[in-house]
Write a structure and sequence with these properties.
The complex is a heterodimer of chains A (about 300) and B (about 290). With about 300 residues, chain A is mainly α. Chain A has a single domain, classed as MetI-like (MetI-like fold, Orthogonal Bundle), CATH 1.10.3720. Chain A has helices spanning about 1-20, 35-45, 45-70, 85-95, 100-130, 135-145, 155-160, 165-190, 195-200, 210-245, 250-260, 265-290, and strands at about 75, 75-80. Chain A has a two-stranded antiparallel sheet with strand order 1-2. In chain A, strand 1 (about 75) and strand 2 form a beta hairpin. In chain A, helix 4 packs across helix 12. The radius of gyration of chain A is 26 Å and the shape is flat. Chain B has a single domain, classed as Rossmann fold (3-Layer(aba) Sandwich), CATH 3.40.50.300. Chain B has helices at about 55-65, 100-110, 115-130, 145-160, 175-195, 205-210, 245-265, 265-280, 285-290; strands at about 15-25, 25-40, 45-50, 70-75, 80, 85-90, 165-170, 195-200, 215, 225-230. A six-stranded mixed β-sheet of chain B has the order 6-7-8-3-9-10, sandwiched between helices. In chain B, strands 2-1-4-5 form a four-stranded antiparallel β-sheet. In chain B, strand 4 and strand 5 form a beta hairpin. The termini of chain B are far apart. Classes of the chains: A mainly alpha (about 300), B alpha/beta (about 290). At the A-B interface, helix 9 and helix 10 of A face strand 6 and helix 2 of B.
């Protein structure tokens, strides 16, 4: 705390002198570029700081990785066979021109898209309806509670029996992984809807259907998006597990295959690709959330 | 005010033989018992009483959110069976829709009625202009101050042209300065619209300042203890609150409520009556008195 206060001091004193100098001047002039840049900097200081620290920390991670693999450190964990960042970069430049690698990525993304979309299309309305109608809640909730703790990966053998093709069973696993977080969070959002808002809508003439659309749904949206974000994370976890076990394509299969073929750099490449894809998809959901809920923008 | 058509005075509220009880593990609990009130068309009536006396329960029954256990509630002779846009309501917690802008909040009732978008936008703008909120039509409620939120709440309730306006301690969460301004705004709107108002508050000054008539309720189970006409002339000024007439009304209502508040705190205390309260005011707790 004290160090930041000291750091701030010289910057704070600068605009003070600027105001004092501009004081006697009667006509307001447009602020100079320097003033604007300074203001922009002051307003965005915490954001810039976060970016600077974030980049530094990523670079430090790469450096530590580089050192550990270059010197083949063995200290409880063994870095003897772990590929170095440079080796991974080399296999990345090779893979980016390899249509097969791109196919792995495209197929994984397609499975996520289908499985996750189905989970959202079924999970959100089901959660809304369960939150509104007690009987439906009472019927479905016990079943959901029993199925929910079963990890998606435990469904793999069952999924293979259930679905005629491998592709369908992998999509099914992905669907299951994201379905329950979406359902549970939507339901939770419904239970938290302020009953006074419902009453306010009623005495403005709103009927059941309008109340559902105009009150319950928007009031639950923040929790629905929490469910979608969590669901997307679990979708990737489930997808990779399913691909490793029963796939012939997909980034999870690619990573496992690299291990079998003793291509260690590709293992790390596959892992990083999964990380980047997971990050990208949760950013997409966050962006969608901000579009759909402008009132929550800070 | 051209936007709002002048109507024949209506909005006659009649509550007869009203009682309301709810079930608990110890058996039925009587919240309100044997209550009759009425509001004449265009009249401003307040209900005051000690906390927990059931004044909000009574208001919620007029709004149609609660069903009376016995007795009936009618508005213009029609029995109240559920909430409707005919009875606008303003809540203490503002209860604006956070996901709607100020204008969309005001438009809501008109939208429910199926009014086309352009028409209801125009109506909402006019109403917001009257409340001095036109500059904030595109803001989300979160960004507004408490006083502004409640002005939106009142405008929203009035937008559909209800017969009666019900207010449940609408200014309870506001600071004293804002509250005085809000009282003035509400009075102005009421006089322009000639709407019947039923106003629940625990603030005696507020009730006297605003109303034509004040009902004072007893402690739980609530019923009407007294009906006090407020003959102060209108338009009322803030300075009236120092007049001997106002102070006399205030003293009268004060002592009525004081009796009931003491009763509400415990049966035995009510035996002590005023004496108990005097001692408490000199720094001793009621427990010590007992």
């Amino acid at each position: 705390m004290s160090s930041s206060a000291i750091l701030r001091q010289p910057e704070d004193s600068m605009p003070a002198t600027a105001i004092a100098a501009a004081g006697p001047e009667p006509i307001a002039r447009p602020p100079s570029f320097g003033t604007l840049a300074l203001r922009w900097y002051r307003l965005n200081r915490s954001g810039l700081r976060a970016i600077a620290i974030g980049v530094t920390s990523l670079l430090a991670f790469l450096l530590v990785w580089h050192l550990l693999t270059t010197y083949r450190v063995v200290f409880f964990v063994r870095f003897t066979n772990v590929p170095s960042p440079l080796a991974v970069y080399a296999s990345f430049t090779k893979a980016i021109h390899d249509p097969k690698f791109l196919l792995h990525i495209v197929l994984s993304c397609r499975r996520i898209l289908i499985g996750f979309s189905l989970a959202a299309i079924i999970g959100v309305p089901l959660g809304l309806i369960m939150g509104r109608f007690k009987l439906i809640h009472e019927i479905i909730f016990p079943v959901a509670e029993v199925l929910r703790p079963i990890p998606a990966i435990a469904w793999v053998p069952m999924a293979i029996m259930l679905w005629p093709t491998n592709e369908q069973s992998i999509v099914f696993i992905t669907f299951l992984g994201s379905f329950f977080p979406i359902l549970v969070n939507t339901l939770h959002g419904m239970t938290l809807v302020d009953p006074v808002l419902v009453r306010a809508a009623q005495c403005l003439g709103a009927r059941e259907r309008s109340i559902f659309r105009e009150v319950y749904f928007p009031a639950s949206l923040p929790h629905i998006f929490t469910g979608l974000t969590v669901g997307m994370g679990v979708a990737w976890v489930s997808l990779i597990a399913a691909e490793m076990i029963s796939g012939q394509y997909g980034i999870g299969y690619f990573t496992w295959e690299a291990y079998s073929l003793v291509q260690y750099a590709d293992i790390a490449l596959g892992m990083i690709a999964i990380g980047v894809l997971g990050l990208g998809s949760s950013l997409l959901i966050r962006g969608a959330g901000q579009l759909v809920m402008p009132w929550r923008a800070k | 005010m051209n936007e709002i058509p002048a109507k024949a005075p209506q909005g006659h509220i009649e509550v007869t033989n009203f009682s309301l009880s709810y079930d608990s593990i110890e058996g039925p609990v009587q919240a309100v018992t044997d209550t009759q009130i009425h509001v004449k068309p265009g009249e401003f009536v307040s209900i005051v009483g000690p906390s927990g006396c059931g004044k909000s329960t009574l208001l919620n029954a007029v709004a149609g959110f609660l069903k009376p256990t016995t007795g009936i509630v009618t508005v213009d002779g029609e029995r109240v069976s559920g909430p409707s846009a005919e009875r606008g309501m303003v809540f203490q917690q503002y209860s604006l829709f956070p996901w709607k802008t100020v204008r969309e909040n005001v438009e809501f009732g008109l939208k429910m009625r199926g009014m086309p978008r352009s028409q209801r936008e125009r109506a909402a703008r006019t109403l917001l202009g009257l409340a001095g909120l036109e500059a904030f039509e595109k803001h989300y409620p979160e960004k507004l101050s408490g006083g502004m939120k409640q002005r939106v709440g009142i405008v929203r309730a009035l937008a559909t042209g209800p017969k009666v306006l019900l207010l449940d301690e609408p200014f309870g969460a506001l600071d004293a300065q804002t509250r005085v301004i809000m009282q003035q705004i509400l009075t102005n709107m009421w006089q322009r619209l000639k709407i019947s108002v039923l106003f629940v508050t625990h603030d005696i000054d507020e009730a006297i300042f605003l109303s034509d008539r004040v009902y004072c309720m007893t402690a739980r189970p609530g019923s009407i203890k007294a009906e006090v006409p407020i003959p102060l002339e209108r338009p009322r000024q803030q300075s009236m609150m120092m007049s001997s007439e106002f102070l006399a009304l205030r003293r009268g209502l004060m002592s009525l409520i004081r009796e009931e508040s003491l009763k509400a705190m415990g049966g035995e205390i009510s035996d002590l009556g005023m004496r108990g309260l005097d001692i408490e005011l000199h720094g001793q707790s009621l427990a010590e008195v007992l």
